[in-house]
Design a protein that fits this description.
Blueprint: H1 2-22, H2 28-33, E1 35-38, H3 44-54, E2 60-64, H4 65-71, H5 74-81, E3 85-92, H6 96-108, E4 113-117, H7 122-135, E5 143-147, H8 155-160, H9 167-180, E6 185-187, H10 193-200, E7 205-208, H11 227-233, E8 237-240, H12 242-245, H13 250-262
Parallel strand pairs: 1-2, 1-8, 2-3, 3-4, 4-5, 5-6, 6-7, 7-8
Bound molecules: cytidine-5'-monophosphate (C5P).
Length: 264
Amino acid sequence: MVARRQGRHRGLRLLLHVYMHKGIFMTRDEARAKVIFALDVESFADAKHLVTLLSGNVGMFKVGKQLFTAVGPEIVRTVRDAGGEVFLDLKYHDIPNTVAMASLEAARLGAKLINLHALGGYEMMARTVATLDREFSGQERARVLAVTILTSSTEATLREVGIEYPVAEMVVRLALLARKAGIDGVVASPLEVPLIRAACGPDFLVVTPGVRPVFAATDDQKRVMTPGEAVRAGADYLVIGRPISGAPDPVGAAEAIIQEIMAC
Ligand code: C5P
């Protein structure tokens, strides 16, 4: 009797998990939390304007190498002061100690997501995670993502640097290495999400750029998915820039993306 009830509960939990994973039951806030807006601008004023405009319509702001190099860490504090979260996309790749210490500073700034190149190797990734865990023991710390193979790289790019394996094989191999080192997830093309999910399980974060809502142009992105498709494929976060910043009404565009995610 008890066993049957437990079995039924397990079944219901599984169904709930499947529904939530598919986006059914997703609230507006849950859908909004999945949208990371890429702050790909060159000035502090432009960045601040977009942060103020979009704070209620996206879950996070991505600060990349261009903006960070131009205006410095103050932009991270500015986003945080406006109530926003930050993905500090600086893709560290260096000797283990240097990456661990740079990551520590990024985490101290209050970034929620930071990243490094998995090609830097196991020790570089494991040392970074251990350093953050030591500093933030018991408190919430920045989640660390690994970049596997850049989506701009092809088989030919890999061969140039002496890697003879297919891209998809390298992506999975590096994602597994990152997970073994304690890394929290990966940045990946939407098309790679199912492969990574199958290899690394449901708790490994997957963040995908290359997302284009049905209303937007594809720009220079070659292999795209819509927000709904990417979430259905298992993406936890979507990085979206120009479909929002280049829209006549950026707030309306962000809102349409949220609706697309909720309906998926
Ligand atoms: O404007 P768009 O939506 O294409 O912006 C996507 C963001 O994600 C940009 O900041 C871009 O640099 C980044 N990105 C990407 N493809 C990758 C990795 C990062 O488009 N493979």
